[in-house]
Amino acid sequence: MKSNNRKRFLMVVALALFGVFVADRIVVGPLTAAWAARSKRIAALRGEVAEGTQLMRREDSLRKRWNLMRSNTLSENSSQAEQQLLKTVDSWAQESRVAISSLTPQWKQNTDDYRTLECRIDAAGNLNALSRFLFNVEKSPMALKLESVELAAADATGQELTLGLRLSGLVLTPEGETK
Predict the structure, then answer these.
(1) Is domain 73-172 classified as CATH 3.30.70.260?
(2) DSSP letter, residue 174
């Protein structure tokens, strides 16, 4: 009888252990993983809410800055935009005493929201004049981006240099006029 009770006891213990194992694999494990994933998602959402709250607090200053940036873009009219850029480049050249040898504008349609006016500029001058020209390009409030800069010596002594620039100017479509 003792051996029968012992077998029964071991069978009950084995089934109980198997039940605990199955419960751990089917119920507890997935619930723990779901809880951890949910905690991570809640933390991420709290971070997004905090960031959104900060943006809402800074809305006025961000809108003012965006409007300032929009006002510094090139004109929507292609010929006016080209004229704007050409006049600006000419004023930079006069101020820095750089000789412009060629200026080639080309339009690029990027998306419905904006397009760019890419311009290749070849200039010549001494190091001081060319560095002043580049400084004027960089400090300009106009929405321009220097795509590439090439600098080469034009004479054997290196006193006369040539500069090749590729600029792109931003033209935004008016708000609400996306095609």
Answers:
(1) no
(2) P
pTM of structure: 0.63
Cα-trace Rg, the chain: 34
- b (16+ CB within 10 A) / e for 25-53: eeeeeeeeeeeeeeeeeeeeeeeeeeeee
In angstroms, the CA 173 to CA 69 distance is: 13
CA–CA separation, 113 and 172 (whole Å): 6
**Residue found by looking up tokens 């009950």 in the block:** 12
pLDDT at 78 over 80: yes
Range of weakest confidence among 104-108, 127-131, 153-157: 153-157
CA angle 140, 147, 131 (to 5 degrees): 55
- Measured from the Cβ of residue 9, the count of other Cβ atoms closer than 10 Å reads 10
For residue 171, the tally of other CB atoms under 10 A from its CB is 21
Lowest model confidence (mean pLDDT) among 24-28, 143-147, 149-153: 24-28
- In this structure, are residues 93 and 137 in contact, taking their beta carbons and an 8 Å threshold? no
Q: Give the sign of the dihedral formed by CA 81, CA 84, CA 90, CA 92.
A: negative
| C-alpha to C-alpha distance for 142 and 165, rounded to whole angstroms | 16
Helices (H) and strands (E) in the chain, counts: 5, 4
